[in-house]
């Protein structure tokens, strides 16, 4: 990306896409109400795209702005959970991408898993309780499954999207 | 494992290797999770009491063997409410004034370590073991 302004515009566009994906996700009916927190993690498609096309710094910036904006628009109470999940997820994905052992889908699976782990750790911290082990098991599995889906979408975007 | 079947074509082998690594990675995660789940399931039997915590402080412990309803009041002046119902050895939160109502949608809990959590009110209802014959109401 030669032009800084063009890059900035593209990152802004990706931020907007990530926000829209978060909104779309919030409109989907929940899989089950018995376990809160099961999500597809659609915004991660945009984050993965930036991670592979630009780099981890750009991905971190977009993820941070996306989380702040979405939290303030929809529900500020979710901010600490989203931040913890987003941070851990991005950290893990950036490190795994660097090892070059896994494909985009494998990296995305780690992202989905770590996002849920981060949220649960933050919930344990805020509620000062360790009694969330059951959630972690269920959310670990759903994180992996949704990570596969998001990873396939993400790798498609990484391969096919062309800038002019 | 038949690792010897991999060809040495640079691009195709690279994709194949990563795809195989993905599968190993995902399988490893699921196996670890399944093992942790199995350990948790077998170590923890049916619990005997429920413990109610508000913002990290235990406000009450109730036996699962006695049917009862407990109002958990939180907020500045106790205006926020979660209603804990213990019935047939299981605990549920039936109504709550919190905005998301996730706690009220939660299925009944009875196994040791299971919990119902109301994030907005910082209420945690956890099934614990131990002797639950005497109600130990602190609040």
Task: Kindly describe this structure.
Chain A has helices spanning 4-27, 43-53, 56-73, 79-99, 104-127, 133-160. Chain A is an all-alpha fold. Chain A has a single domain, classed as Orthogonal Bundle (Arp2/3 complex 21 kDa subunit ARPC3), CATH 1.10.1760. Chain A is globular and about 50 Å long. The mean pLDDT of chain A is 90. Chain B has 139 residues and is of the alpha+beta class. Chain B has two domains: 8-43; 49-137, N-utilization substance G protein NusG, insert domain (mini-chromosome maintenance (MCM) complex, domain 2, Sandwich). Helix content of chain B is 27%, strand content 34%. Chain B has helices spanning 10-43, 102-105, and strands at 49-54, 57-63, 68-74, 80-87, 90-96, 115-118, 123-128, 136-137. A five-stranded antiparallel sheet of chain B has the order 6-7-1-2-8, with no helix packed on it. In chain B, a hairpin with a 2-residue loop joins strand 1 (49-54) and strand 2 (57-63). The A-B interface holds A 33-34, 36, 77, 101-103, 105-106, 109-110, 113, 123, 126-129, 131-134, 137, 140-141, 144, 148 and B 15, 18-19, 21-22, 25-26, 29-30, 33, 36-37, 40, 53, 55-56, 100, 102, 105-107, 113-115, 117, 119-120, 122, 124, 126.
What is the CATH topology of chain A?
A: Arp2/3 complex 21 kDa subunit ARPC3
Number of domains of chain A: 1
CATH class of chain A: Mainly Alpha
Q: Approximately how much helix is present in the residues of chain A?
A: over 70%
Mean pLDDT of chain B: 80
Tell me the β content of chain B. Answer: 25-35%
Question: What general outline of chain B do the C-alpha atoms trace?
Answer: elongated
The number of distinct helices of chain A, counting runs of at least 4 residues, comes to 6
Structural class of chain B: alpha+beta
Largest sheet of chain B: 5 strands, antiparallel
How many DSSP-defined strands of chain A? 0
Percent range of helical residues of chain B: 25-40%
CATH architecture of the largest domain in chain B: Sandwich
Total count of strands of chain B: 8
CATH class of the largest domain in chain B: Mainly Beta
CATH fold node name of the largest domain in chain B: mini-chromosome maintenance (MCM) complex, domain 2
The proportion of strand residues of chain A reads under 5%
Q: Using only CA atoms, what is the Rg of chain A?
A: 15 Å
The span between the termini of chain B is 60 Å
- Give the uncertain stretches of chain A in residue-range form: none
Low-pLDDT stretches of chain B are 1-13, 131-136
